[in-house]
């Protein structure tokens, strides 16, 4: 034992670092530098766009100047229906997401847990999935007409598959060793689901949520360009009739921004819910 | 060596004529085993001889094909890997499956016993291998099991950590008095820990060594190795 202590003592008396030649840091830009560089190209592009619009190289009918789009945004937001239309679009997306998401999650959990449910449901879902869901549009219009029902249905449909697939996958991929541990610790079926299966499947489920946000958005854009009386898509179609390219560009930018915000929210959710996960860990707890 | 519980002769587990086969491959046949409360039994045996199979049968994790196992309803198990839930804090891990109130306090007490009382809210991923295995031990012992099953729990640890774990496990077992069955490949570990050492071969307990510490350790060691089919050069020469 005392020899151990001697070994430990000698091991801790390593020569101080100064005795070694200091290693020179290779030249690096650092995080901030790289961040700045990553914004160079987009900014340059916008500057070029603005310049060519100002000099009249591009007709405003084809592509209005960014500054013009900003002014239009301000005007529509203060005196027009922009905010109402935005609200309508968001509500459609949220409703469709909630409906499609809960159906997909329920089915995913059923199929993830039960081989019987898988045999009953999975093949049908996979077959429907093979159809590009936008190809169903004409049929959906026949069923629902062009109203809220058609739009919400389309969004729900788009949301369903990513969430369904990732939920089943997540549940299937839960470490069987941890499930066995749950049995050893005497967990009931409910406890097993709550303490082990759902947390284990959560990373995958959230991935599904992120994908589905993208498809929900796509579905909404398409649905709103057809016979809408309100919403961002309606704004775009209406503006097209009057060749108001600035409004059209504005709606495109709004769609993009909302997509970015939705993705950011999903990422935030991941960082909060998956703080335990090394891949999502931000800082130490 | 003999303590109160041993003299009381309350068995932790009694196995009679156990049989276990995978398809046509018979792994355990007519296996008999009895472990008293407070008794520390170490099981040795060649790789693939069926140690894990026996332990899993005792844990109630696998069905058996014949014979009887009289074991407590819920034995505690420590596996070779710590099997901590990565999404739960240490105290939540330790209290997994516990009933009743004051779970956090009870988990805290158990974690303090293994020297991690100050890390209740930490994540498992911030632990070293030895620390994680200590949490697994705390989780196993917090429910005061009558039978503690350990399948090569220290195999993945470095030599120094393993020595510390031996001391810790001995202390904990002495305090909580479960019957213990520990599977290992390390003959020296067996000699340090066991009240009784078993060697498994051909599906049964083929050799039993009770008088730990009465013969010189080197002799015991050579004998056990011989039982395991390892002949030391020193002896052969
Ligand atoms: N699920 C299984 N299906 C078929 N055969 C199995 C299965 N599990 C184990 N076996 C076989 O049963 C025998 C005993 O396996 P077991 O895991 O109990 O050995 P072990 O003594 O624990 O070995 P080790 O010391 O290497 O861990 C082996 O020959 C193994 O191949
Ligand atoms: Mg084994």
Task: Show the helix and strand layout.
The complex is a heterodimer of chains A (285) and B (237).
Chain A: H1 2-12, H2 30-54, H3 66-79, H4 82-113, H5 115-129, H6 137-144, H7 148-172, H8 176-184, H9 189-224, H10 232-241, H11 245-273
Helix pairs in contact in A: 3-11, 4-5, 4-7, 4-9, 4-10, 6-7, 7-9, 9-11, 10-11
Chain B: H1 4-8, E1 11-22, E2 25-36, E3 40-45, H2 51-59, E4 66-70, E5 76-78, H3 90-94, H4 103-113, H5 129-141, E6 147-151, H6 159-176, E7 179-183, H7 187-193, E8 196-201, E9 204-209, H8 217-227, H9 233-236
Parallel strand pairs in B: 3-7, 3-8, 5-6, 6-7
Antiparallel strand pairs in B: 1-2, 1-4, 8-9
Helix pairs in contact in B: 4-5, 5-6
Magnesium ion is lined by residues 51-52, 151 of chain B.
Would you give an account of this structure?
- The complex is a heterodimer of chains A (285) and B (237).
- Chain A has 11 helices and no strands.
- In chain A, helix 4 packs parallel to helix 7 and helix 9 packs antiparallel against helix 11.
- About 3% of the residues of chain A have low confidence.
- The radius of gyration of chain B is 18 Å and the shape is globular.
- In chain B, helix 4 packs across helix 5 and helix 5 packs parallel to helix 6.
- In chain B, a hairpin with a 2-residue loop joins strand 1 and strand 2.
- Helix content of chain B is 35%, strand content 25%.
- Chain B folds into 2 domains: 162 residues, Rossmann fold (3-Layer(aba) Sandwich); 61 residues, no CATH class.
- At the A-B interface, helix 8 and helix 9 of A face loops of B.
- Magnesium ion binds next to helix 2 of chain B.
